[in-house]
Amino acid sequence: MYSYFNSLEKLDLSDNKLEYLNATFIAHISTSSNLTGLGLYDNPWSCNCNITPLHSYMYNNPGKFINVNRISCKDWTIPLLEMDMDLICSSILSTLISISIALGVLCLIVGILTLVYLRHRLRVTAWLAEHGVNRVLSRQPIRTDRAKPDADKIPMSGDKQENCILLPD
Question: Which residue windows are transmembrane per the record (predicted)?
Fold first, then answer.
C-alpha cells in the first residue's frame, strides 16, 4: 500500500485536520530514503500515546520536516519536538492525578459536612432525635433485646418478687 512512497521526495500534509498518524505509516516513511521534506504543520495533533511514533521520528530526523517548529499539539503552543513524551504518555502520572483529584474532592466533602455539623450541631441533633435517630449520637449502647416484652424488667430479691423498669439516664 505504501510502495508509492519509495520514490516520493516531498510530502506536504499540512493544514489537513490530522490528529495522529498511525505507527505503520511512520515506520514506512522512516525507511523511505528519498523523503527529504515532510510537512505536517498546522494540524490539530492529539497529544496522547498515539503521537509517540511521530515524536520519535521527528526527534531522530528533524531535518526531514518542513517548518518543524510549527508542528504542535492541539491547544498547545510548545512545538511537538520539544515536548516530553514521558509526561504525555504516562499512565502512572494520569493515575496519580486521578487519585489526587478524587481524594481532594472526598476531603472537601468531608470537610464541608464537618463544618456544617459543627455549626448546626444542636439543630442536627434535634432533627435526629425528632426522627428517631438519636441513638446514633448517644453514648448509650443500643439494646438488641427489644423484641421480648419483659426485657426491661428485672426481678428484685426479697420477700416480694417485683419487677422494675429501667429508664435511660
Answer: 92-118
| Beta-bridge partners for 164 | 154
- Looking at the chain, the number of H-run helices and the number of E-run strands are 6, 5
Residue 146 pLDDT exceeds 80: no
Helices (H), the chain: 23-31, 52-60, 85-88, 91-119, 121-130, 134-137
Pairwise CA distance, residues 11 & 53, whole Å: 18
Polymer length in residues for the chain: 169
**pLDDT tens-place string over residues 58-95:** 999 888 899 998 998 887 888 888 887 777 776 566 77
- What the block records as the C-alpha cell of 24 is 505503520
- In the three-class reduction of DSSP (H, G, I as helix; E, B as strand; rest coil), residue 37 is classed as strand
Q: What's this model's pTM, rounded to 2 decimal places? A: 0.50
Q: Hey, how many other C-beta atoms are within 10 angstroms of the C-beta on 14?
A: 16
Residues 6+ apart with CB under 8 A from 117: 124
Count CA atoms within 13 Å of residue 114 on its CB side: 6
Give the integer Cα–Cα distance in Å for 114 and 137.
15
Mean pLDDT of 22-39: 83
Three-class secondary structure of residue 11 per DSSP: strand
